[in-house]
Design brief:
This protein has 151 residues and is of the alpha+beta class. It has a domain of 77 residues: Arc Repressor Mutant, subunit A, CATH 1.10.10.10. Helices cover 40% and strands 11% of the residues. The chain has six helices and four strands. The strands form two sheets. It has a two-stranded antiparallel sheet. Strands 3-4 form a two-stranded antiparallel ribbon. Strand 3 and strand 4 form a beta hairpin. The protein is globular and about 55 Å long. The two termini are 23 Å apart. Pfam families: HxlR (PF01638). Keywords: DNA-binding, Transcription, Transcription regulation. GO terms for molecular function: DNA binding. This is Putative HTH-type transcriptional regulator.
Length: 151
């Protein structure tokens, strides 16, 4: 069975999120933005991506409100791309993906060590309960219909 071209019909926030960030170049653009890259040529240098693909991904991320275009030069007008609050909210997901990749796809060890600037401790991803603060695993979570659900 062929994969659908979009996930609009699925009642799933993961599928809807994939519509925005679900391809390789988009995640790498977001990674670069989180690392402080802002200008088109700097993205291209960092990623080695074709100009047309990069332009498409930057436009889509701006259209989705993940990035915003800010002029930095008047003549000719040139823009830089800055993360919005929505874009910054992807940071935890990107860090979890990085740590997962380090654990499973870095046989010689992590290519980059990410740690707490204040004490040099390593990062440990955890999902916690908003009521009691307990760190939760998959077996301790239940799903129930939410207000945006449909049958």
């Amino acid at each position: 069975m062929a994969l659908p071209r979009t996930y609009d019909s699925q009642n799933c926030s993961i599928a809807r999120s994939l519509e925005v960030v679900g391809d390789r170049w988009t995640l790498l653009v977001i990674r670069s933005a989180l690392e402080g890259v802002r200008r088109f040529d700097d993205y291209q240098d960092a990623l080695g991506v074709a100009r047309n693909i990069l332009a498409d991904r930057l436009t889509r991320l701006c259209d989705e409100g993940v990035l915003r275009r800010v002029p930095y030069q008047e003549r000719p007008v040139r823009y830089e791309y800055r993360l919005t609050r929505k874009g910054l909210e992807l940071w935890p997901a990107m860090m979890v993906l990085l740590l997962w990749g380090d654990r499973h796809y870095a046989p010689d060890g992590p290519p980059l060590i990410v740690g707490h600037r204040g004490c040099a401790g390593s990062l440990t991803p955890a999902l916690t309960c908003s009521s009691c603060g307990a760190a939760l695993g998959p077996g301790e979570v239940e799903s129930r219909p939410g207000p945006g659900g449909r049958s």
